[in-house]
Amino acid sequence: xxxxxxxxxxxxxxxxxxxxxxxxxxxxxxxxxxxxxxxxxxxxxxxxxxxxxxxxxxxxxxxxxxxxxxxxxxxxxxxxxxxxxxxxxxxxxxxxxxxxxxxxxxxxxxxxxxxxxxxxxxxxxxxxxxxxxxxxxxxxxxxxxxxxxxxxxxxxxxxxxxxxxxxxxxxxxxxxxxxxxxxxxxxxxxxxxxxxxxxxxxxxxxxxxxxxxxxxxxxxxxxxxxxxxxxxxxxxxxxxxxxxxxxxxxxxxxxxxxxxxxxxxxxxxxxxxxxxxxxxxxxxxxxxxxxxxxxxxxxxxxxxxxxxxxxxxxxxxxxxxxxxxxxxxxxxxx
Amino acid sequence: xxxxxxxxxxxxxxxxxxxxxxxxxxxxxxxxxxxxxxxxxxxxxxxxxxxxxxxxxxxxxxxxxxxxxxxxxxxxxxxxxxxxxxxxxxxxxxxxxxxxxxxxxxxxxxxxxxxxxxxxxxxxxxxxxxxxxxxxxxxxxxxxxxxxxxxxxxxxxxxxxxxxxxxxxxxxxxxxxxxxxxxxxxxxxxxxxxxxxxxxxxxxxxxxxxxxxxxxxxxxxxxxxxxxxxxxxxxxxxxxxxxxxxxxxxxxxxxxxxxxxxxxxxxxxxxxxxxxxxxxxxxxxxxxxxxxxxxxxxxxxxxxxxxxxxxxxxxxxxxxxxxxxxxxxxxxxx
Lengths: 334, 334
Hints:
Two copies of one chain form a homodimer. The first copy, chain A, is of the alpha/beta class. The first copy, chain A, folds into two domains: about 1-125 and about 320-334, 3-Layer(aba) Sandwich (Rossmann fold), CATH 3.40.50; about 130-155 and about 200-315, Dihydrodipicolinate Reductase, domain 2 (2-Layer Sandwich), CATH 3.30.360.10. Chain A has helices spanning about 10-20, 55-60, 70-85, 105-110, 130-140, 160-175, 210-220, 255-265, 280-285, 315-334; strands spanning about 1-5, 30-35, 40-45, 50, 65-70, 90, 120, 145-150, 230, 240-250, 270, 290-300, 305-310. In chain A, strands 9-8-10-13-12-11 form a six-stranded mixed β-sheet. Chain A has a five-stranded parallel β-sheet with strand order 2-1-5-6-7, sandwiched between helices. In chain A, strand 3 and strand 4 (about 50) form a beta hairpin. Chain A is globular, with a radius of gyration of 20 Å. Chains A and B meet through strand 8, helix 6, strand 9, strand 10 and helix 9 of A and strand 8, helix 6, strand 9, strand 10 and helix 9 of B.
């Protein structure tokens, strides 16, 4: 497999390069590109130095696959070049996700949709993937009626600069006891604070991020009527998105059965024994491939509903690992 | 008014002493007590040094009112002594809140319940107060059907030692790039992490904190059938609790009307214009008396429901201010 990576120096790109040698992929040639300021820099991969190349036409010549973790704008241009040179692009941006001819894939759920594509395959937003996996697991026994989800999202979802902003602002407070007035990435301080605003707002007063959780989940689950209301909140955590999810079914759920269904699902581990302080936290989830579920319980306000808490490494299953798993499916189906 | 404060050196006690000179209360004598290790220490109040006294019988002699912000156990013993000496105790612990002869009061909602008591008045848990105020405001026009709430709770709700633990663990990470293995207050690290576990778990797998939000709100609103499902999460924030709240009514709500109703309610300010990055954050809410609402919108998953985000200073309206307002009502009604 000849593979190119766009955004190789970014938060997701680094994790992709970390996971690649441990994957089932046999990469015969690897090319890396990133934004202008990184061109010429060296990156160590499998004990070899790779130089960040320019994202020009040449980059794509002869590649089988391209993984792009960049802005929607960069991915749009990259897709044109990738298609021209007959590579298949796995895209982590929001640019193509809702296009009819673009499969939006979580391999545990809908890898069969990879059979038909137009040169671009999209991976979901990092908050969508764990939600969709959970809903896919439980819908095997219970019809989904309505989902309410509140997120607790790590700053690495925004990228390396956001991690720096969190750490700089936090350090400023620890050193001075005052709030830093320096902010470049977010519109409010994130150090020791919360920002209930992820991506730009829309006319219905939800944000783009919140609506992604609805539209992407509907597409992945092929359930266009599914009802989801999301509230997305940025929290002062470096890595791993957490979500508090309320799911309403059309009949009363058996919580033990749901726990079993979830734990048996590929890529999900249930860690749920609060009496022994057992439930996932972001620090626990960091670096792990599975998504982790705790706080599973019947909803006392509605006999047909449940509550649960999920933690998922936004850079791993939320991004890089999901892309690698898609490449593994491609290699398998030829 | 002769006033005693139990827990004067704690997170809430300090804020109480800060707010007291700015209140309508005319305090002719002030006595302070706290835990054993603080006895004999001096506290500056209104430019005068006060010495932390022992929490003995003598402390209560001649007092009109006692404010207690301590453990349930300390409050229980204090109530006995307070009653014996005919003082009225305003209690911030969970010990008495659900007792039938103890008013549980948010003055904006149910100050009339102060007319009958047995020497003890309780203030609600710091997550309950903002929720109850919001529900009281909107129920003037809409019948409440079901509430789902996820909290984002600051560590100062646990006390001064939890603030230290958050800062120490965060500093350790910033200095070393590794996770601190020192934790005394919480069962998991809270520095740059989340803990979906506030207070001990119950048989129904909710925690005590989560069930307080149900039972206390029902009592304050005199609405014993109200349906609330809460998930309580500790976040790496020093001060101000935030809550993402979904409220279902029995008819479709007019969101502009709800915004007006909320903003006109005593003690609530709506700050809601996400297109201009306007919504409350914990750092914004710190030190402020009002509770603040943003992200108000119709729920796309249910035409009878709304979503909103609230930030409330857990030490002010969530504790000290609410107690002072109760004392002000007592002074007014004599």
